[in-house]
Specification:
This protein is α/β, with parallel strands linked by helices. It folds into 2 domains: 233 residues, Spore Coat Polysaccharide Biosynthesis Protein SpsA, Chain A (Alpha-Beta Complex), CATH 3.90.550; 84 residues, no CATH class. It contains 15 helices and 9 strands. Strands 1, 2, 3, 4, 5, 6, 7, 8 and 9 form a 9-stranded mixed sheet that branches. Strand 1, helix 1 and strand 2 form a beta-alpha-beta unit. The longest helix has 38 residues. The chain is globular, with a radius of gyration of 25 Å. The N and C termini lie far apart (96 Å). 35% of the residues are buried.
Length: 377
């Protein structure tokens, strides 16, 4: 049983459930939490509840949240009995919420006052995912390379640039995007989304084995079957700073983020029923892609990289890889046809290299002859 702060206010269970639940999972987020809550409570759409679930913060997060719960009956505050971790707390928020639509809002982020009303205005039957364009709020403590990455990604890889002037991205178009760049999140963070509760019943929960790609994989599950609705307005603000969850995870283990998260994504694309349409589309391409093959390649690459990491971090990386393979045994399999394809690819590469070398030798010979001819007209 969760502990409930004494100042928590909530509607009675007899009340009509709200249309929207704004879910705010918190953990040591006191620095920006007041701004976040103010933006949520300022929505022009009034039929919502605000569910805050604190994951055993050690700063003043709970006190900040309790002050809002004490003065606004739409705010419901809970604290977990134990730390559930990132995905566990997202799921706890979902279970405690009552709305038909789930609006995740992270403790660092902000919503425009018209966010809910504009996103709800474009909803369609049987399309459980609505996305808005998000702005970036880059804090002064953010490393320059991280700033440049977010700015470049926003300019090149988000829905606005990939699907200009549309309010609906079809399942086939979204699936083609997943085939082309399966590791690139073109949707954005959960703060930029509105998800119908039925999506969690139909597609299951967030996958807790991911560290960073967890939201992207879930959005992809929905998008390849139902597409998504899109509002090309900056209705959410994602705050970038050096203490964000992504940066914290990177500091703990870059191997976990850059090697193991992509492995899980490739596994799901290769085997999960949710991505059957993606597999069919990938195999119909002129350069057909069987996701089992890049998965097998990536497992081998990850193992080689882990072995090159010196000392304890290298042993931990190998242990993490072994644990992941125990969770996903198909990662250890060599798919039928893999050896033939790998050898053929190696032979084509060797042939290409030999041709290039031969061309280089011919060009050097011609230049030498011209040089000699120039000296002896």
């Amino acid at each position: 049983m969760d502990s409930v702060n004494a100042h928590t206010s909530s509607k009675s269970s007899a009340d009509q459930p709200p249309l929207v639940s704004i879910c705010i999972p918190t953990y040591n987020g006191a620095r920006f939490l007041s701004q976040c809550l103010d933006s949520a409570l300022a929505q022009t759409w009034r039929d919502f509840e605000l569910v805050i679930v604190d994951d055993r913060s050690t700063d003043t997060t709970l006190e900040v949240a309790a002050a809002y719960a004490a003065r606004d009956p739409r705010v419901r505050l809970r604290q977990n009995d134990r730390n559930l971790g990132l995905v566990g707390n997202w799921t706890r928020c979902l279970h405690l919420s009552r709305g038909q639509w789930i609006k995740f809002l992270f403790q660092d982020d902000l919503l425009a006052p018209s966010c809910l009303s504009k996103m709800l205005a474009i909803r369609r039957p049987d399309v459980p995912l609505i996305v808005c364009r998000r702005a970036l709020e880059i804090e002064p403590d953010t490393p320059q390379d991280l700033t440049q990455w977010y700015q470049s990604h926003a300019a090149q890889h988000m829905l606005r640039s990939l699907f200009p002037n549309v309010s609906f991205v079809s399942p086939s178009d979204f699936a083609a995007r997943v085939v082309a760049q399966p590791m690139v999140n073109c949707v954005g963070e959960p703060t930029a989304t509105l998800i119908h509760r039925s999506a969690f019943d139909r597609f299951g929960p967030f996958n807790p084995n991911f560290k960073v790609l967890v939201d992207w994989e879930f959005f992809a599950r929905i998008g390849v079957l139902h597409g998504l609705c899109y509002v090309d307005d900056e209705l959410a603000t994602f705050r970038v700073h050096s203490k964000s969850t992504t940066q914290t995870e990177l500091a703990r283990s870059s191997f976990r983020i850059y090697e193991l998260d992509p492995l899980i994504m490739l596994h799901e694309l290769a085997y999960s029923a949710a991505f059957g349409s993606v597999r069919k589309l990938a195999m119909r391409r002129q350069d057909a892609i069987d996701f089992r093959f890049p998965l097998a390649d990536h497992v081998r690459q990850a193992r080689r990289k882990a072995k090159r990491i010196p000392g304890k971090p290298g042993r931990e990386a190998l242990d993490d890889l072994a644990d992941l393979i125990r969770t996903y045994p198909r990662m250890a399999q060599t798919p039928r046809g893999y050896v033939f394809v790998t050898v053929s690819k190696a032979l084509r590469h060797a042939r290409w290299s030999l041709l290039r070398r031969a061309e280089d030798l011919v060009l050097k010979g011609r230049r030498a002859i011209r040089s000699v001819d120039g000296r002896h007209p």
